[in-house]
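Structure representation.

___
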Amino acid sequence: MDVVTGATGFVGPHLVDALVARGRRVRCLVRDIARASFLERAGVEVREGSLLDDRFVADALQGAERVFHLAGGGKVSTASQEGLDLLRRSNVAPLETVLRGATGARVQRVVHFSSISSMGVQLDVRLDESSPCKPETPHEIAKFESERVALDAYRRDGTPVVVLRPSQIYGPGDVRSEIPRLVRLTRRGLVPMFGGGEGLMPWVFVSDVVDAAMAAAERPEAPGQTYIVSDSESYRFADIVASIARALGRKRGGLAIPRTLAWPAIAAVEMGAKALGREPPFTRHRLASMCGRRLVSIAHARLDLGYVPRVGLDEGMQRAVTWCVARGLA
């Protein structure tokens, strides 16, 4: 039997569908059972409770062979200490509970979903799993700390945990991150393309992430390892916007904004927000990320997991945009 946390999020339903299609028994741990009716209709067992409750988690993991830990929370764009504290409570603390439960239940594999964010924004260098992590923002720090917790459990207790670092995930079912907002702006031709949209960013389609997770749960080489999961190459932001525009039947969807104009404006907004004790809507750190060249290697995942990204940008964006439009999100 497989246990999935975070099954009501973006990636979780795709993973659950894939597990059910393979004939696996699945038990999902959710915070709010009212949001899980679609899981029950799929014949999946659902248990409601808190991942901070050791007793609940230990009981839920009894009889489990594998655990896929996707649960998380907190505001990705936060820049405050309060935001970091919330991210730790939402990401690090639940993982600690799950790992204790998994160790006690002697599960055969724990797949922990982290993020490429754990490595921080590093420009003009192709990162692999041996590259140093340089997290700066609260979200990056929390993801990095969760990875350390996972790998410490492997080294200390022998818990067979695998860490996945997906890049920017996109696809149908995404209602909280970048794509729905980009689709809305692209439809109006209003996507701000800082630096002309020349910045490079690694992306990955959701089904490719699920494929990597399946392999991480099965391959004997995987425990104790970390794997970057992404497309083979990064994409220009201008290419992302152009792909969305094509899916919408538009010729263009963005407005080029020179970085020399954007930087002082965003700096003023960021400092003003901090002076008022508020979260800035945009930061210079994020601008640097969007304008720089972020590169990753997936050689380790290819070698150990047999991972091959199968969904290209235009196909993936067409599927994501079609889903958004059909549900009135764009």
Remarks:
- The CA atoms of residues 305 and 324 lie 31 Å apart.
- The mean pLDDT is 93.
- Residues 2-175+202-232+295-311 form a domain with the Rossmann fold fold (CATH 3.40.50.720).
